[in-house]
Amino acid sequence: MDPASYKKARRHFLKSTRDRDNSAAHSSDWSPFRVAEKRFKSKFPPPDLSNVLDLALLDPQRIHEINAGGWAGRPDAFPTRRINLFDSDAKGYIFPHIPGLVVLPSFLSHQKQKDLVEWSLSEHSKQPNETNLDIHYILPPEGVWNAYVAAKSDPSLDLHIPPKSSVVLDAFEQYQEQESGPRQLINNTPADSDNFDSLHNVPKLPAAPSPTAHPSSPATLLPKLRWANIGWFYHWGTKQYDFTKGKIAVHSTIRDICKHAVRAADWNQVFGNDSGDAGDLDWGENGPEWMDWNETYEPDAGIVNFYQTKDTLMAHVDRSEVCATSPLVSISLGNAAIFLIGGPTRDTEPSPILLRSGDVVIMSGPACRRSYHGVPRILENTLPSHMLSTDEDQREWELYEQYMKTTRININVRQVFPKGFAPQQHVDI
Ligand code: OGA
Ligand code: MN
């Protein structure tokens, strides 16, 4: 080896061992949740899924979907229990070590999954609902998806969507400074019925539009669509709902699916006397509420998450809702993902679950509803064949198919307030 090559190789060796030492030092500080996130995020080598629960493996009808995607976990990665479902042919599973978590694999029919993709993009991601793109751009009233579809069919309809900053630069002080990205580590106060008044009255400034955004076509903005708000408006800067902006009703399609999922679960098997550890949960002053959920469950807020295959959702707890035990219903569509669910801090080792298109997850009760959870990995190339266009589809589904090839959609629906409760009335009392 000539001296120059030797020097170069040595530099490379020293640098790589130094990097290794540094990362070893860091990894000892990482919480078990962080370690799991890192493991599943890795592209090279791809993650080992042998400890990931994959309930689709128990359903012979899904074997094709699993094989075509090329990713599979295990049906017995950790202990599960089958529960009865009312009024549904699907199956339900609970987990003795995560009381309150219910997974309903393949709860939604293939057609329903396609309908929800269409609803999420075409009907929902537009005014008066808010999306992450609205922070930075003045979107047309038909929303980014419909503008994209129109331009595809007739290029003369293509738009230059203007950035907000070009219009409102001089009003900049009206905005709250915000770092980029939808999720920040903000230690917000958990909402409850005592602090609701003060949370309600805190003025919430809109997030600052990016000063570097420039006029963009719908086709450029579409891959940047990250979330659309459902129901009560969520304020990312403070991680609290902004009740002063009023409330948009949760669309009946979504509301009906969530109510159906909550009614389908046999809650007595989840939380009743024979449910093991779940019997010891602390439900607070109102006592166990699960017995009444058939009447009291009413979704009023949520978010549609759009993940491109490189996107992740870091460990967090959804604690902005006054109802801290009421079911949160989470619908998966498109590409599959690894979902991690841990405990009250990031120090609980999380359990990894492979979620596929059509699966519904319910997080409920005092422990599970406020457990750390996140999505460290979207599994690329796992769009199931029932999401591809068929001969009967109008040409329009081709665009959905193309978009969904690299996308996972999650519709995450919550109950902020007890049924029938209106904040305005509460404030007036
Ligand atoms: C959320 C969430 C989980 C998912 O939106 O708060 O936890 O499966 N989503 O995408
Ligand atoms: Mn969440």
Automatic annotation (TrEMBL):
The lineage's top-level taxon is Eukaryota
Identify the cofactor(s). Answer: Fe(2+)
Q: Which residues cross the membrane?
A: none
Q: Name one GO cellular component term.
A: cytoplasm
- Which keywords are on file for this protein? Dioxygenase, Iron, Metal-binding, Oxidoreductase
Q: Does the keyword Oxidoreductase apply?
A: yes
Q: Name one GO molecular function term.
A: dioxygenase activity
Q: Where is the composition biased (Polar residues)?
A: 179-198
By its UniProt entry, which Gene3D superfamilies does this protein fall under? Answer: Alpha-ketoglutarate-dependent dioxygenase AlkB-like (2.60.120.590)
Q: How is the cofactor bound?
A: Binds 1 Fe(2+) ion per subunit.
Q: Name one Pfam family in it.
A: 2OG-FeII_Oxy_2
- Binding annotation for Fe cation: H316, D318, H373
Q: Which InterPro entries match?
A: Alkb, AlkB-like, AlkB-like_sf, Oxoglu/Fe-dep_dioxygenase_dom
Segments for region (Disordered): 1-29, 179-217
Q: Could you tell me which residue ranges the Fe2OG dioxygenase domain spans? A: 298-417
List the PROSITE patterns: FE2OG_OXY
Q: What is this protein called?
A: Fe2OG dioxygenase domain-containing protein
What lineage, starting at the top, does this entry show? Eukaryota, Fungi, Dikarya, Basidiomycota, Agaricomycotina
